[in-house]
Design goal:
Chain lengths: ~300, ~250
């Protein structure tokens, strides 16, 4: 069944969108990530204009994060104080991100920026995660207990405060900075930023793993909601029909994915996620490096 | 899809020797939620006072043209190993959709001079003035090539059927990715490459119903639309969580 999307102004198959939402939902349920980093490139691929894909995906992430964070609230695994600090940074970052996005759109370089961001961040995160989980698997075989270092450069910064749920006493500056960076990426890449936020919280801030996902989801809701509003009011690129179709597939897929995820080992899950992230990264890098079949592209003219 | 032909003949006011009388299968296209392209049947008759001239062939050209829009055409080039948009050409006005159908190959139907005057073929229908790059032509060619690939620009030589030098008809296929606006439809009668009569009308292409409402809301009440999107997202997220929570019990 073909559906004409009112904002994207293209006609796409509704079942294709439901299916895409479902598959990405399964993956996000399995791995505990938003799935934006997979969905946005897939939307480019089926012919949704990049600006609409990025803005609409932000709206969809609001839904999936909200659904996820409710479960974490029940388990009391959300650090509200840390989440609020990250969120404040995130809002500033999102505003900066939309500003950069609009500026580069006028230069015709927005596609390049989005793709470069994907290649760099997916490459770095995927690579680190792969190495880390590979070691974890070897360790679990060799039965060596990892040692965690307690103090680092983060502990010498000013404005220290207590984050009780996380059991941390650190400066507010690093979480603020993490928030800003992830906010910028959320606006530019149309992702929640969970795939960067989660490793940053574990390895940079030293938060306990059990509160990381819930706290990350909590702040992602606000940052993506803010991004959605910014895109909706400045670019008019949020397509509600597209969002609804992706949502329906996504929330069903996420629940199925969660069940699959429970049956697998954490290290195996992480190595699979790392491989998937690297695959998406490789595909995008390949497209940038190999001569495209069509050298020309069309953009809306006039003074935007 | 194609409705029955209704011939509307017998009009007054004889002016030219040969004149177009036109019908359209429809004069408006509604973009609904399930819009998936549409066929428009353009048909008509040639009205004449005198005998059919036998010294030359009568030919018919039909064009359907979407609203003109400025377009930026960008070219990629390799910089530091990656392919980056470098040069750009601003095309002042290019129709968002353009189809030209004829009775015979273009060269037999239309002279260059007449093409220049009436902007009939696709390259002539595109206007670009502000050229800052040397080979502007390759940019306009790229524009035509890309849009032709999306079925937005169509050259349908020999697709107009002409019977008894009087009744003509053609079907124009409108793709799903249409822009809104007035689609001007022109019919040219030519002999020896010279245009002897022109008839113009328009087809109104517009979003209707829910599509119209959402589009207007998004543009005129962007803040409210954004809030509505968020509200739907929150409700869907909460709903999914609640439903699956109920399943678990």
């Amino acid at each position: 069944m073909q559906i004409y999307l009112p904002i994207a102004e293209v006609s796409v198959n509704a079942f294709l969108l439901l299916g895409l939402g479902g598959i990405v939902g399964i993956l996000s349920g399995m791995f505990g990530v938003g799935g934006g980093f997979l969905m946005t490139p897939l939307l480019f691929f089926i012919g949704i204009p990049p600006a609409v894909a990025v803005a609409t995906e932000a709206n969809q992430i609001v839904a999936s994060s909200f659904s996820g964070v409710l479960a974490h609230f029940r388990r009391k695994t959300v650090d509200l104080k840390m989440g609020t600090v990250l969120m404040l940074g995130g809002l500033v970052g999102a505003a900066l991100g939309v500003f950069i996005f609009n500026y580069l759109k006028s230069l015709g370089q927005v596609d390049l920026l989005v793709k470069l961001c994907y290649v760099v961040f997916l490459g770095v995160v995927g690579g680190l995660m792969f190495i880390e989980s590979w070691r974890a698997i070897r360790r679990s075989k060799a039965n060596i207990v990892p040692t965690r270092k307690k103090h680092g450069w983060i502990h010498v910064l000013p404005f220290k405060t207590k984050f009780r749920v996380s059991g941390l006493y650190i400066s507010v500056l690093p979480p603020l900075a993490v928030g800003v960076v992830v906010g910028i990426l959320a606006a530019i890449m149309g992702v929640g930023g969970g795939f960067i936020m989660v490793p940053a919280m574990i390895y940079l801030l030293g938060m306990p793993t059990k509160v990381v996902v819930g706290t990350s989801l909590f702040q992602i809701i606000f940052v993506t909601a803010f991004t959605t509003m910014l895109h909706a009011t400045t670019n008019y690129t949020v397509d509600i029909a597209l969002a609804v179709l992706l949502l329906v597939g996504g929330v069903i897929g996420a629940q199925i994915g969660t069940r699959i995820g429970v049956k697998m080992k954490a290290e195996q899950l992480r190595i699979l996620l790392a491989l998937m992230v690297l695959a998406v990264c490789g595909k995008l890098a390949f497209d940038l490096l190999v001569q495209p079949s069509e050298l020309y592209s069309l953009g809306a003219g006039g003074h935007e | 899809m194609i409705r029955a032909l209704i011939m509307m003949l017998c009009l007054a006011a004889p002016a030219a020797a040969e004149e177009v009388v036109l019908g359209l299968s429809r004069d408006s296209v509604a973009i609904t939620a399930t819009f998936d392209g549409d066929d428009i049947l353009v048909f008509g008759a040639v009205k004449r006072e005198d005998m059919i001239p036998s010294d030359s062939n009568l030919e018919v050209i039909i064009t359907v043209s979407g609203p003109d829009q400025p377009v930026t055409v960008r070219r990629k080039d390799q910089r530091l190993g990656i392919w980056v948009n470098t040069e750009a050409v601003e095309v002042d006005a290019a129709p968002s959709f353009y189809a030209v159908a004829t009775t015979s190959p273009m060269a037999n139907v239309l002279s260059d001079v007449e093409d220049l005057r009436h902007h009939i073929t696709i390259p002539r229908a595109i206007r670009s003035v502000g050229a800052t790059v040397d080979d502007t032509a390759s940019f306009t060619q790229a524009l035509i090539r890309i849009r032709a690939g999306q079925q937005l620009y169509q050259t349908l030589e020999g697709q107009v059927s002409l019977e008894e030098d009087t009744l003509f008809s053609t079907a124009i296929e409108l793709p799903a990715n249409l822009t809104e606006g007035d689609y001007s439809t022109r019919i040219f009668l030519t002999r020896d490459g010279a245009v002897i009569d022109v008839y113009e009308t328009k087809i109104d292409v517009a979003k209707v119903g829910l599509e119209r409402w959402l589009y207007n809301l998004a543009h005129e009440n962007a803040f409210l639309y954004g809030l509505m999107s968020l509200f739907i997202a929150i409700v869907a997220g909460w709903g999914a969580s609640a439903i699956f929570q109920a399943f678990r019990r």
